[in-house]
Amino acid sequence: MKSIDDINLQEKAATHDKIGQEEIGQEKEISQEEETVTAETQLQEKDMDSVSKKSQNYSPNKRVKYGYIKYVSLAILTIQNAALGLSMRYSRTRQVEMFAPTAAVVVAEVLKLAICFVLVMKESGGLQSGLRTMYTTVILNIKDTLRVCVPSFLYVIQNNLLYVSVSNLDAATYQITYQLKILTTAFFAVLVLKRRLKKWQWGALALLVAGVILVQLTPSGENETKPSENLGKQSKLLGFGAALAACFISGFAGIYFEKVLKESDISVWMRNVQLSLASIPFGIITHVIKTGTITDLMKGFDGYVWYLVALNAAGGLLVAVVVKYADNILKGFATSVAIIISCVASIYIFDFHITIQFAAGAVLVIGSIFLYGYVPKKPETRTSLSV
């Protein structure tokens, strides 16, 4: 079908030809024939270019390149997911001067801000243009920035709750319980975004809840971990309550942030700059309320804590890469493998004991992750270019 621009151009050409025939006569007809030949030549070249570009888009080299990025990012995300839960738990059991979790949250946000700042500069094409874009987006559009303060505050509370949870739950139980964020995200997606879940997704959520219940009801005496003087007496109920609260906050904040992203054309990295700029003041206030001072912000920070902060800050960036180059099935695979790694590593690091009940719950949770992310393949439509 012809576009509106093509129809308008043809109408103008017809009018021009009529006037030219009256004024110039045969010379205009010759010129018109030349233009027609030229136009046909350009169309043929355009068709050849489109075929060439299409063949380039589906070239084996590009498929290999994207496949390489996809699987490398998935491997890194798997390691990051497994290492984060284990590292957070180990950081609370070490026999050293304990750092404040609120301080770790603040420093992680500062590191995220620095990384996203560099990405915005690269995206904008330079330092000056990047600073100009940030000034326009963050300062001049202050109403939009204030909207981001809601998820910023929620993310600070969520990250602090995760430290409470991992201080009272072993790494494997924490990793599995935190998958309830799938349930809470789906709940708020239906409630806020009016999404409709498929039948298998509802079934996946039921499996998820059943699996977490089995894991949580595993007798604590059967999977005790090494005691720690820094942690003191641990409460499984407190750990589960903190993880559940963090899941609800994560679900609502994620859906709210998604809604904000869809209502504007601001890039993801610029949105993360806004998030971090708003999160840092909230994080400092939370630290002052808990510790009573700001002077000991870096107390207990050593090389391991800095590694933990960097690991936490890198998580969001890895998810963004995986979402771009992979799909839900592969992302679910990465999360599932991370759960298995956490369980196996906990046996050797924390003297964790896996029971049949715990293993059954873990299998249900892993199965629910795959089932929820399942997307049935659509039948391919054959075209004239199909081989």
UniProtKB/TrEMBL annotation:
- Main location, first listed in the record: membrane
Spell out the residue ranges making up region: Disordered: 1-57
Record's SUPFAM superfamilies? Multidrug resistance efflux transporter EmrE
Compartments where found:
Membrane
Residues passing through the membrane, by range: 98-121, 176-193, 200-217, 237-257, 269-289, 304-323, 330-350, 356-375
Entry's Gene Ontology cellular component terms: Golgi membrane
Question: In its keyword annotation, does this UniProt entry include rRNA-binding?
Answer: no
How does the protein associate with the membrane? Answer: Multi-pass membrane protein
GO molecular function per UniProt: pyrimidine nucleotide-sugar transmembrane transporter activity
Q: Which UniProt keywords apply?
A: Membrane, Sugar transport, Transmembrane, Transmembrane helix, Transport
Would the keyword Membrane be found if you checked this record's keyword annotation?
yes
Show the ranges annotated as biased composition (Basic and acidic residues). Answer: 13-31, 43-52
Q: Which protein family is it in?
A: Belongs to the nucleotide-sugar transporter family. SLC35A subfamily.
Q: What is the designated name of this protein?
A: UDP-N-acetylglucosamine transporter isoform X1
Species whose genome carries this gene: Bicyclus anynana (Squinting bush brown butterfly)
